[in-house]
Write a structure and sequence with these properties.
- The complex is a heterotrimer of chains A (424), B (316) and C (346).
- By secondary structure, chain A is mainly alpha-helical.
- Chain B has 316 residues and is mainly α.
- Chain B has two domains: 75 residues, no CATH class; 178 residues, MetI-like (MetI-like fold, Orthogonal Bundle).
- With 346 residues, chain C is an alpha/beta fold.
- Chain C folds into two domains: 220 residues, Rossmann fold (3-Layer(aba) Sandwich), CATH 3.40.50; 100 residues, no CATH class.
- Chain C has an eight-stranded mixed β-sheet, with helices on both faces.
- In chain C, helix 8 links the parallel strand 7 and strand 8.
- Chain C starts with a strand and ends with a helix.
- Chains A and C meet through helix 1, helix 2, helix 3 and helix 4 of A and strand 11 of C.
Chain lengths: 424, 316, 346
């Protein structure tokens, strides 16, 4: 039975047959003749009866073929292609966390340069009379924080009037008797207590030599950042060169180079860095080099794997068969593919360099005084943490902020360059 | 498998040898020499005597061979020249290694389960509040150096609140007195493991084999435990080594912050006073322990992952 | 063909995506009859896999069934809780995956992966499960099943892996087997063997099969009936003969014309343009912008199903009485002619 119907339906196609090419002509005519259509459709009766009457009310002109002049080949892509870097940049800039991290980094960088200019002190101006002052900042002092005050413990109660005038802010209630003498904690305006000149402000206080810690901290930040950027840049250059050569030439060259990498990588970083610094002595250049000894290996491995991925691609083979030189193949045809991972890698290398530097400072292998770095300040502050906690507090805050911001930024960059890794 | 292990062990000996040689020559050839700092107090005779005693009058390569021979035949690592004059380096280290290992392993023992728990939680509740909170903590823990954490803990928890001793105290139970240092050392490995497991697990949770496990009638919990979690724990072994090595590195500084009589403290001190024989030995020791950790993980990785055990390619 | 075993009614599935809601399935209706093989054909992204995942209750967490019913055994599967699905999956409805490599757990022995379902659901002992698993492996055509039982997936070839996946799917004697492009990831020579195996197993195990594919060649070999899907909707369905010899929807025409074969001398037809972005499904017929035979009404109103025959329906305005009569594209007419001849010759 249903075969019949199909036949019927099929005959419709065979009917007044519009040839493919004929269709357009038909369409040019004054619409389709309604009358000639109707009897045709009466054929498979069921079908017409089954139709919703509403559907029958659709006006005839709606059934004009409108797409006949369509090009059968694929459409051209609409819109301008967005470059890879621009696309990544757009994705990065849409990520609020990354942008906040970027702002954080920029702020710290700005302060590293502007900070020392905001005080009248040089980073190495020593003033024993102003040693170990607590932080005091105009504006904030009125809120009761950073007001240059400090609790002095175990002050003889009977000696309180010997304190400089107006220096006592608060007397504690913890009166104790030690060998018959009543002692008490006293909160003093330490600036007045030590007789420092009026209107002296040390925003972050001073260290044991009376050096202004605000100036030193930002100066140290500058050095730490410098170490970070320099070693990241150098690590990137060496890594890219080494990785490119290994990846591009492959075979024995690659094998030997990768074995070297493996050996270097197997040594704990601390050991390598310590040895290096011990031998070459501490100092900026030496530290940057020490950070390089091992860090470039990861970059090199990364670049090498990019090369393995791309060097077999048709476009590279095509370029090679046209006689393009090795150098041009490496730098023009293959390396640009690795731009994303390299940028991300540099961004992670900076905080890890800053971290290692402060680690070395803790080991006593930091840069040479009087120059300073965040790590040096941390190490110095740590020694007096129980008496003057703010000396370690501010460097700790700055290094933490810096590390968090750099890490967030490199996460954001990684996501921006490789959206498939999102959230990983 | 045996071949695989042998190959690994051979690799480790090569690295160890490279480090030992490099370290030895760097130390001996260091400007200032081995008696730097005390030299001026010695008469020329005394100096020659000392040099002769420590074989330092011989050419450097002979010194090295003697050094190696001493270690191999008598387990003789030389003597300390400044910190504990004439005390055998090995005795100094042997006294301190246990507490350092204790710190390291305890910290690892704490970090691994916590990291796994956090990572699993974050992956299962991906993009939820818990996940965001965990991710936030991960960034914080990874970013803040362990010695900053140690300093903070020491000041607030020990000094301000007085919950734990400020510095190492032999008379207290070890667990109490090492609690803060261990904690300080654990933040970074916890964060590393969490981050890694979260990524691995969320990938396995979306994998086809996880779907297959569910279509064969396993419950979601069964499928997650038996397939997704099991499979993503395998590569976590990969981060445990770097985690352990970073703990050992961190303990160098954390030990001296808390005054723990461990290897870290003595290493820092030996560096500061230029007691090179002690520095040399402890650096070799650090290399050895991290190489051993790498070997251990390689072997266990091979045991867990049949693709490696059977000599198949890892990506097959 | 017997009674209806599975019925999907007006199924709609939405995905919450980063940029908005994707309407992956937009009102799908079909029935699976007992003992038949129903093929669902469409390009990637047409919603065919999502439909099967909805049937098995394994939609990803960002997917929602917004309306519709999936009736099986008197139950509406869309209303089922995860807990209740455990007794359906594997035991009643099973799935064979597209890529056997990623579907098998890489670090578990294949035997264990087959046994797992048996032990968890049938509470077999290890020995019983192993016996059954080995039998299953033999069943799906794995040589030396005893030895292979304790091997790992990476030691198998692609075709053998797919057989393992099929064995797992059949382990609990399901009534319905859903094959989601089971041969796409395999070599052509292996493909036909797997297809034959699925056909044999269907008879042996008395299965009803839903076969998802984009390959019309495969459809012709295995299917009894065919649904053609486009942009989350079924646009035409009928018996294999209906679809291959009397296609009525321009999309089916396009699919058939773009199928490569040895006899075609003309340039291979490709469907112009790309499938619509399902975040903003077009008004009217979704295929209209790519359809050479689109009419004004196609852009305004969605076509209902027009009946072509008792078994054959198509959703295209071309079947409306008022529509101009459109000839099949010449290429296709020739091709159908040839196919018919071939069949008669065979």
């Amino acid at each position: 039975m249903h075969k019949e119907e199909i036949k019927g339906r099929g005959s419709q196609y065979d009917g007044p047959a519009l040839e493919n090419d004929g269709l357009a002509a038909e369409n040019n005519g004054p619409a389709l003749e309604k009358d000639s259509l109707a009897p045709e459709n009466n054929g498979p009766a069921l079908e017409k009866d089954g139709l919703d009457p509403e559907l029958m009310e659709i006006p005839q002109e709606k059934f004009r073929l409108v797409n006949l002049d369509m090009d059968e080949s694929d459409e051209k892509f609409k819109g301008k292609p967005i470059g890879f870097l621009k696309d990544a940049f757009l994705r990065f800039s849409r990520n609020k966390v990354s942008m906040a991290a970027l702002a954080g980094v920029l702020l710290v960088v700005f302060m590293a340069f502007a900070g020392p200019l905001m005080t009248p002190y040089g980073y190495n101006d020593q003033n024993p009379e102003e040693a170990n002052l607590p932080p005091k900042m105009p504006g904030l002092e009125k809120l009761g924080i950073l007001d240059g005050s400090r609790w002095l413990t175990s002050c003889r109660k009977d000696s309180l009037d010997e304190f400089p005038e107006g220096s006592i802010l608060e007397i504690g209630t913890d009166v104790e008797k030690i060998r018959g003498v009543e002692v008490v904690s006293v909160k003093v305006d330490y600036y007045k207590y030590t007789g420092v000149e009026e209107d002296t402000y040390h925003y972050f206080g001073t260290d044991y030599l009376g050096r202004d810690l605000w100036t030193r901290l930002w100066r140290g930040t500058r050095i730490s950042l410098l170490i970070g950027f320099l070693s990241a840049a150098a690590n990137c250059v060496i890594g890219v060169l080494f990785g490119s050569i290994a990846g591009y030439y492959g075979g024995k060259v690659d094998m030997v180079m990768m074995r070297i990498c493996e050996v270097i990588n197997a040594i704990p970083q601390i050991v390598l860095v310590t040895l290096f610094i011990l031998y070459f002595g501490s100092g900026l250049v030496s530290i940057v080099c020490a950070l390089l000894v091992q860090n470039w290996v990861a970059t090199a491995t990364l670049i090498r794997s990019q090369f393995y991925r791309y060097k077999g691609r048709e476009y590279v083979l095509a370029a090679r068969s046209l006689g393009v030189s090795d150098r041009k193949l490496i730098f023009v045809h293959i390396l640009p593919n690795a731009v994303g991972p390299v940028i991300t890698r540099v961004m992670t290398a900076i905080p890890s360099a800053i971290f290692t530097e402060s680690f070395l400072a803790f080991l006593g292998l930091g840069i040479k005084p009087p120059e300073t770095s965040i790590g040096m300040l941390l190490a110095d502050g740590q020694k007096v943490i129980l008496t003057y906690p703010t000396q370690v507090l501010f460097p700790a805050i700055i290094i933490s902020v810096l590390m968090v911001c750099f890490n967030l930024m490199s996460n954001g960059l990684r996501d921006a360059f490789d959206p498939t890794l999102r959230g990983a | 498998m045996a071949k695989y292990i042998l190959k690994r062990i051979a690799g480790i000996f090569i690295v160890l040898f490279v480090v030992m040689t490099a370290a030895f020559f760097m130390m001996r050839l260091m400007p200032g020499g081995i008696l730097d700092g005390v030299e001026e107090n010695l008469s020329a005779d005394m100096r020659d005597l000392i040099y002769a005693k420590y074989d330092m009058d011989k050419p450097i390569w002979e010194q090295y061979l003697l050094f190696l021979k001493g270690i191999v035949t008598e387990w003789d690592w030389g003597v300390s020249l400044k910190l504990y004059v004439n005390v055998s380096v090995w005795d100094i280290l042997a006294e301190r290694i246990p507490i350092t290992l204790y710190l390291g392993f305890l910290s690892l023992l704490i970090s691994v389960p916590i990291g796994i728990a956090f990572g699993t939680l974050a992956a299962l509740k991906k993009n939820g509040i818990v996940d965001h909170a965990v991710s936030f903590l991960v960034v914080l823990f990874i970013s803040i150096p362990s010695f900053v954490m140690a300093t903070g803990l020491q000041y607030f928890v020990a000094y301000k609140w007085g919950w734990f001793p400020l510095i190492y105290d032999d008379s207290l139970p070890r667990i109490t007195t090492t609690f803060l240092p261990v904690l300080a050392l654990s933040f970074t490995p916890i964060a590393t493991i969490t981050r890694y497991l979260r990524a691995e697990l969320s990938e396995s949770l979306n994998s086809d084999y996880m779907l297959l496990a569910r279509t064969k009638g396993l419950t979601r919990v069964q499928a997650t435990l038996r397939h997704a979690l099991r499979n993503s724990l395998v590569p976590v072994v990969n981060v445990i080594v770097p985690a352990f090595i970073s703990i050992m590195g961190g303990s160098l500084v954390v030990e001296s912050i808390f005054g723990i009589p461990g290897l870290g403290g003595i290493t820092v001190r030996s560096i500061n006073v230029a007691d090179y024989s002690v520095t040399l030995a402890s650096l070799i020791y650090y290399t050895l322990i991290s190489l051993a950790a790498i070997l251990l993980v390689d072997i266990s990785y091979g045991l867990i992952d049949p693709r490696i055990r059977m000599g198949g390619r890892k990506d097959a | 063909m017997g009674e209806t075993i599975l019925k999907v009614k007006d199924l709609r599935v939405n995905f919450r995506a980063w940029a908005g809601t994707v309407q992956a399935v937009r009102g799908v209706n079909f029935e699976l009859k007992k003992g038949e093989t129903l093929a669902i054909v469409g390009e990637s992204g047409s919603g065919k896999s999502v439909t099967t995942k909805a049937i098995l209750g394994i939609l990803p967490s960002n997917a929602r069934i917004t309306s519709g019913e999936i009736l099986y055994d008197g139950k509406d599967l869309t209303k089922l809780k995860e807990k209740d699905f455990y007794s359906i999956r594997g035991k009643h409805i099973s799935l064979v995956f597209q890529d056997p490599l990623s579907a098998l757990n890489p670090i578990q022995k294949v035997g264990k992966q087959i046994c797992e379902a048996l032990r968890k659901n049938e509470h077999m002992t290890a020995a019983e499960a192993k016996k059954r698993a080995v039998a299953l492996m033999e069943d799906v055509g794995i040589p030396e099943p005893e030895t292979k039982f304790s091997q790992y997936p990476f030691q198998f070839s692609g075709g053998m892996r797919q057989r393992i996946v099929i064995a797992i799917a059949l382990a609990l004697n399901p009534k319905i087997l859903i094959c989601d492009e089971p041969t796409t990831a395999l070599d052509v020579t292996i493909q036909s063997r797997i297809l034959d195996k699925i056909k044999d197993l269907k008879e042996e195990h008395d299965l009803s099969v839903i076969f998802i594919t984009h390959d019309l060649g495969v459809v012709a070999t295995v299917a009894d009936r065919v649904c053609v899907m486009y942009a989350g909707k079924i646009v035409e369905y009928g018996t294999v003969d209906d679809i291959f010899y009397e296609p009525a929807h321009p999309y089916t025409w396009a699919l058939l014309s773009s199928m490569p074969d040895l006899d075609t001398r003309e340039k291979l037809f490709s469907i112009p343009g790309a499938p619509p972005n399902m975040m903003y499904p077009p008004k009217g017929d979704a295929f209209a912008p790519r359809n050479r035979y689109a009419m004004e009404i196609d852009f305004e109103q969605e076509p209902p199903f027009f009946k072509v025959s008792d078994t054959h329906y198509a959703a295209t305005w071309l079947l409306h009485p008022k529509a101009p009569k459109v000839e099949l594209p010449e290429v296709l007419r020739h091709r159908i002619q040839r196919m018919k001849e071939e069949r008669e010759g065979a």
